[in-house]
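Lab notebook: predicted structure, single chain.

Context: the supervisor wants predicted structures on file for every construct in the current expression panel, including those that have not yet been purified. This is the next one on the list. No modifications to the sequence; it matches the entry in the shared construct table.
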Amino acid sequence: MLEKVDLSYCISIHKSQGAEFPVVIIPILKEHYIMLRRNLLYTAISRAKVKVILIGQKQAVFMAIHKSDVDKRNTILSDRIVAYYAREKQNLVG
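Prediction complete. Output recorded below exactly as produced.
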């Protein structure tokens, strides 16, 4: 019986970007609502060359399809750039 078993591996959608696989199995549940986004589902589906298998809840698929917004990134980079140029301007003037 074991001679009929093939090993397979699990990786995240994020790690799979840029790779392709013959078959992709995607677990999709409402409990993962934070990650249910159209772009992430598209990335997962587009990794498959031959077959995609979605395992989970239809409602979760609909949630992902209808949620296309990307979370706002919490960053102070723009504030730092503005402050840097304000200091540079002061140095040139004064």
